[in-house]
Amino acid sequence: MAVSDPFHLAIQVHDIEEARRFYGEFLGCPEGRSSDSWVDFDLYGHQFVCHLNTELAKQGVAQHKNPVDGHGVPVPHFGVVLEMNAWQALADRLKAEGVSFEIEPYVRFKGEPGEQATMFFFDPSGNALEFKAFKDRESQLFRK
């Protein structure tokens, strides 16, 4: 999926090779430029960069949880808003791979504006990811 205005996001990881396995091999993000201390990925058309922080293994990524629809949503988090079929295929693949979800795939805000399918899980460095989808993304993404 190409986007007209891709975002750029850089995160910290404690191991570059582990990030390559997780984002590149496991999630299927094509790799771009890299060095010994960072690697670019194409995350659904967005420029996503993992930067090495060797101290991260000692301190871990700081997490906070906000209550949303009866769940503790990890903050900070990032991810992609997918088409519903792509979201379901990813959720099915992650379940089959035995991913440990922070919030299992489900539909939140059922019957309300902004109804969405969502799931949360962590990368090996403790970064929280959310992948979500709407039945009608264009009309629901920012609906109040």
UniProtKB/TrEMBL annotation:
Listed SUPFAM superfamilies: Glyoxalase/Bleomycin resistance protein/Dihydroxybiphenyl dioxygenase
UniProt xrefs under PANTHER family: PTHR39434, VOC DOMAIN-CONTAINING PROTEIN (PTHR39434:SF1)
Highest taxon in the source lineage: Bacteria
InterPro entries: Glyas_Bleomycin-R_OHBP_Dase, Glyas_Fos-R_dOase_dom, VOC_core
CDD domains named among the record's database cross-references: VOC_like
Protein name: Glyoxalase
Residues covered by the VOC domain: 5-134
